[in-house]
Amino acid sequence: MKKQDSFPGWDWDDPDGLAVLLDGFSEQVATCDKLEPVAAGLPRDREDFLGLGLTGIEFAAFRTAHPAGLGTDLAALSSPGLTTEPGTLYRVDGDRSFTQLDISEPLPFADASVDWVYAEHLIEHVTMPVAVHWLGEARRVLRPGGVLRVTTPDLARYLVGYATDDGFLARHRRRLGMLGFGPPMPARPAFLVNQIFRYYGHQWIYDLDELRHVLTRAGFAPEQIRACAYRQGARPDVADLDTAFRTDETIYVEADR
Questions:
Q1: Cα–Cα distance for residue pair 186/20, rounded to 1 Å
Q2: Distance between CA 26 and CA 22 in Å, rounded?
């Protein structure tokens, strides 16, 4: 059986047609074994966060790897007996916290509530106005001295790979194939550049200058913004949230409050 036969109707040349199939893949990931609503409700200020043992927020995470992190996502998280709803705090599998949040809306937390904010490969999924709004809200809820860490696909890495044929696009294609959704991607260089713009719900792709632009529009001072490396940053516990399988394409940026 050909690999393509395992994915009937899959056409990599039709990003709009594949959007529904990729959404289905995402829904399969949004599951856990056990969900428990927390009676105390959502934390509102720093005292509430600390009372729940929380120091920061990880966006686009159903189950944050940080033991003192609040995981959030736009999509619902489901267990065999329960599905999350916005406005409620949940314990996930007994040892992590989660709530549904829409980053296009104001965050339901007080100013200076948390020590850190982290988001891996989230900002490229929203339009620039939404990105600026969310970054401004992240800055608002950070305490003075707190840190925001954002990672996202690096446009410069794709364009250098395309222009120089340095092997990046071929390696990236192999890595994506290991994720197991869909048949192997086409090896055409132009396709491999286009897919970062047209698939996965992506809305805007950044390089370092573009990240500096949205961060300064959101209120961070230019001198507070810096490029970092994989799992290197102001707070090792936050930088350690970087996942290894995305290092080939990712740019890492931090901004201090």
A1: 20
A2: 6
Let me know: does 227 contact 253? Beta carbons within 8 Å.
yes
Q: How far apart are CA 138 and CA 167, in angstroms?
A: 36
Q: How far is CA 161 from CA 65, 82, 227, 228, in A?
A: 31, 45, 20, 21
Q: What is the pLDDT along the chain (257 residues), one digit of tens a residue?
A: 345 567 888 999 999 888 877 766 666 778 999 999 998 899 999 999 999 999 999 999 999 999 999 999 999 999 999 999 999 999 999 999 999 999 999 999 999 999 999 999 999 999 999 999 999 999 999 999 999 999 999 999 999 999 999 999 999 999 888 887 789 999 999 999 999 999 989 999 999 999 999 999 999 999 999 999 999 999 999 999 999 988 999 999 999 99
Task: Tell which residue, 212, 210, 196, 203, has the closest CA to residue 249.
Answer: 196
The edge-to-edge listing of strands for the beta sheet with 225-228 is: 35-37, 90-92, 96-100, 69-73, 56-59, 114-120, 142-153, 250-256, 225-228
Place of tokens 């954002």: 150
Q: For residue 179, what is the DSSP state?
A: T
**Residue labelled with tokens 């200058």:** 209
| Contact between residue 75 and residue 101 where contact means Cβ atoms under 8 Å apart | no
- d(C-alpha 253, C-alpha 125), whole Å: 17
Pairing mode, strands 96-100 and 69-73: parallel
